[in-house]
Amino acid sequence: MALLLRDKQITQDNWLVVDETATTLPSGDILLSFNHWQQLENKLEQHNGAIGVWIEGNAEIEDFLEPLLSLPLIAINFPKFADGRGFSLATLLRDRYQYKGELRAIGNFIRDQLFFLTRCGFNSFKFPDGTNLEEVANSLTDFSENYQVSADENQPLFRRR
Amino acid sequence: MYKYDNYDQKIVDQRVEQFRDQTERYLAGEIADEEFLPLRLQNGLYVQRLAPMLRIAVPYGMLSSRQVRKLAHISRVYDKGYVHFTTRQNVQLNWPALEQVPDILAELASVEMHAIQTSGNCIRNTTTDQFAGVASDEIEDPRPWCELIRQWSTLHPEFAFLPRKFKIAVCGSEEDRAAFLLHDIGLQLAKNERGELGFEVFVGGGLGRTPIIGSSIRKFLPKEHLLSYLDAILRVYNRFGNRDNKYKARIKILVKAWTSSVFAERVEKEWDAIKGGPSTLTDVEISRVKSFFPSPDYQKVDQQASTDELTSLASENQAFKRWLERNTQTQKQAGYRSVTLSLKPAGVAPGDVTDKQLELIADLSDRYSFGELRATHNQNLVLTDVIETDLFELWQRAKHSGLATPTIGTINDMICCPGGDYCSLANAKSIPVAEAIQRKFSDLDYVYDLGDLELNISGCMNACGHHHIGHIGILGVDKKGKEWYQIQLGGSANKNASLGKVLGPSLSREQITDGIEKLLDVYVDNRIADESFLHTYQRIGIEKFKERVYGSTS
User: How far apart are CA B166 and CA B117, in angstroms?
Assistant: First the structure.
């Protein structure tokens, strides 16, 4: 079973990523692309596991957000690690839309972004298989203080100092 | 000057440790080149033509004498004994070793300095007027606001991977000395009809390949909303700025594509959702930050006596008189002046200064200027709050160390990027052109007769030498592997900012100084009374200049 970093712990990843072309769904907890999820909407009621959806960082979330907010897992894909749109999308999901479920980074983000990703509201991170997660987890705590408000800090430093 | 508390110090110290770990992992082969690239850039480290280059932040240009001594020490121990001041009020080391950069950063942190976000696609050092706090046309001291922006932008988690670099400037005075209309965000401090303080907000200005003057998107932003409004602008840019083509990725391109009014609507809509939230500045915080920029302990001065003494010294000493006229400026505090130490003697790359000079500058600052100084976007250093009766002594000491070249604001005070001698982006060398111009126009009487003249040189279209906004701009271009220079005329960075127009075909390195001389001849022949070069150009247009340089065209 694959592993991931969730809530600062190394844990089993129970979610199966479903190929967009798959016609039959595997059983258990599944992670679908947004398009796939929309296409399958009616069939999902009978599914014997939890449903999560992954979206691209450049998604215009206002258009489709409401139905996603009740899902237990939303994943945001980073096409390139230098594409920072996912940071804003995560911030909006947590702050504006009060999403409380698991928010997972997938795709090409890198360990040196973990601290900022966490601050923007991501709480789980799917690295390529074979990554030394114990080592990588060190980057979660690069800093102990921040100036700004963020998804994990509701007061700026100037209101705390 | 702002002093770090435990929080500020901890953040900077932890950044040093984070970068030390990243550098070690890179050297051990655990981080790929393309992944290390943005990590090192966000800490100011470039890999250049000859060696890495480290850009150190000088927040809004303010330095203490202690920091300057540390820079001298670092340049001696880790580099070749000199540093370079940039057009964004920062300072660069040209020859550090990658392995030693974490140690350099640790040295910097010990004097409350860092290299955070001095490069890369993130929010860069905020710049402002070098005469902040002493300018007689000041509406409000911009430095506390720059410091608030520094803290907000430092390690902002949402905006570390923007489509492209992002620069903010704040103008606190009537006259613009920060080129704020040529920044991604330009903030003009202003008061509304009720006398409350706030900002007019401009976006989308910039130089580079597509020079554009910023557009106003909000006439008045109450001061307490500064940070949430900046968040709104940056969020709109981060989400919708172009990421496919780095030459189309600056915010100016988005503002132009959407129009500034549509951009303003998008920002306002975003801002509505966060306005009044926890990022709203409190009076306590504004007062706390302002308290770090008090007026120094001014003495009561006998204005008449000090003016008489200066006049008499100036009449006896022509060289002092010239320096007094060009390199000093009166302040709103009577009996005090600001002194510009020139980093532009002929034969030295503009903005370069040695470790020995830095130490002398620190001494001068302690003795005459309350231990503080400022870097300017024209690549000079300023000592403010010098009592007038100390000027003669200060001049003698500065002159002795080559820091009193009396050419501030003249053709020989040019802005110049490092160019092809150092920079791997450059198409052509710029420093030898600057030197050739300084040597050609070395007759000070002639230089003074020409008066205020801004000549800016960039070695490529990235425009680090601000060629678009020089009264005379020179742009290095590469044609079939040879260096050529395009001339532009009529640029200006003040509140009526204008971008230069191309004069005509590029000139070779050998032709460039003669070409400049012809331009100056046209000015001298056509000027009316004490009209400046820029005003003459604006009155008579480009044709006469063109004809003189290229011969009759019809």
Answer: 10
Distance (Å, whole) CA A158 – CA A154: 12
From start to end of B271-376, where are the E strands? 328-330, 336-341, 352-354, 372-375
Average pLDDT over residues B61-78: 98
Alpha-carbon radius of gyration of chain A: 16
Residue type at position B213: I
Q: No. of H helices and E strands in chain B?
A: 18, 21
Cβ-nearest to A144 among B14, B151, B159:
B14
Would you give the end-to-end CA distance of chain A in angstroms? 45
CATH fold label, A3-160: TIM Barrel (3.20.20)
ipTM: 0.96
**What's the pLDDT score for residue B48?**
66
- Say which of B161, B239, B278 has its CB closest to residue A154: B278
Global pTM value: 0.94
Count of other CB atoms within 10 angstroms of residue A43: 10
The domain locations on chain A are 3-160
Tell me, yes or no, if B35 comes closer than 8 A to chain A by beta carbon: yes
Chain A residues near residue B121 by CB distance under 8 angstroms: 82, 84
For residue A10, give the amino acid letter.
I
For B443-472, the pLDDT digits (tens) are 999 999 999 999 999 999 989 899 999 999
Of B216, B226, B214, which is closest to residue B261 (Cα–Cα)?
B216
Cα B362 from Cα B401, distance rounded (Å): 13
Least confident of B231-240, B415-424, B465-474: B415-424
Widest Cα–Cα separation across chain B: 70
d(CA A23, CA A29) in angstroms, rounded, equals: 16
